[in-house]
Amino acid sequence: MQVGDSGTSRHLGLDLGGTNIKWAVVEQHTDGRWLLLDKSQVPTPDQGPVRVVAEMADVARLAVATWPDAATLGIGVPGLYDPMTGVTRMLPNLQGDWNGVPVAATVAGALGLPVAMINDARAFGLAELRLGAGRGSSTMVGLTLGTGVGGVVCVGGRVHQGHDGTAGELGHQTLEPEGPPCTCGSNGCLEALVRADRIEDLCGTATAEEAFTRARAGDPRAKAGLAEIGRYLGIGIANLIVVMTPDKVVIGGGMSAASDLLMDPIHAEVRRRVTTTALDEVAIVTAELGTWAGAIGAAIHGAESAAGMAA
């Protein structure tokens, strides 16, 4: 890994989303500090995997033209992939068939940099752990709430990925065995009970954002619907606290903008269900890095993966 005269190194991260491809450059200091140096985004093409991956390579080349001393590349993807080959398996929110697409090799080949891939929710968690709301935590769990529910588990100050990069799929814990179908193929998952379209159904609105607005204005149906969403989130978070006893639970994603409407029912359900640990030592907080967490976390993952291989 290239290290500057000041003992710092710089790293590029890409975050592939259904709407935008985001990139970020971070700087790592020898004292463990991370700084965000630059960030930007371009729209994600709607023309299938070949065009999207080509755009990712173009975005990476432009970023490296601005930051030519970037030493590594990390790529965050919204789904499943093979961590050994960097080949995607399933990206359900993107158009086309993503099974078997060599994302990592194609983008890295355009740059000549070491590359590491990570799930976008795990990237979110790593960014919040190093730079955001999870700073200083030894054990942390995180949830990203939006179209679906992503998750991350951090133990010993590191993201736990499991043997195939899928550890932390917290949205797919079963809360109601005979509940509504989930995109994963199971039933009654946390995701199936709290995702954005569920909010719309419960609150009688066209979008989740409209539900938040109506609830803040005192609309009874919207308030009741979001209370139900908060209750299920509380049940899921209570399960995580019982299993992990984390220092912090970090809630991010688009729905975190409604934390003022969701935190009370979340806390009420957690207090009702968790009796095995002291809740005053578990902080439930909202994320700090917003929509850039995925790109920042991907950059950090690329750096830490390269450092691990070199050690």
Could you explain how this protein is built, in words?
With 311 residues, the protein is of the alpha/beta class. Helix content is 38%, strand content 23%. It has 9 helices and 12 strands. It has helices at residues 49-66, 103-111, 120-131, 190-194, 196-203, 208-216, 220-244, 259-273, 293-310, and strands spanning 9-16, 20-28, 34-43, 70-77, 80-82, 87-90, 115-119, 140-145, 149-155, 158-159, 248-252, 283-286. The strands form 3 sheets. The protein has a 5-stranded mixed sheet, sandwiched between helices. A 5-stranded mixed sheet has the order 10-9-8-11-12, with helices on both faces. Strands 5-6 form a two-stranded antiparallel sheet. Helix 3 packs across helix 9 (293-310) and helix 6 (208-216) crosses helix 7 (220-244). The chain starts with 8 loop residues before the first strand and ends with a helix.
Summarize the structure.
With 311 residues, this protein is of the alpha/beta class. It has helices spanning 49-66, 103-111, 120-131, 190-194, 196-203, 208-216, 220-244, 259-273, 293-310; strands spanning 9-16, 20-28, 34-43, 70-77, 80-82, 87-90, 115-119, 140-145, 149-155, 158-159, 248-252, 283-286. Helix 1 packs parallel to helix 2 (103-111).
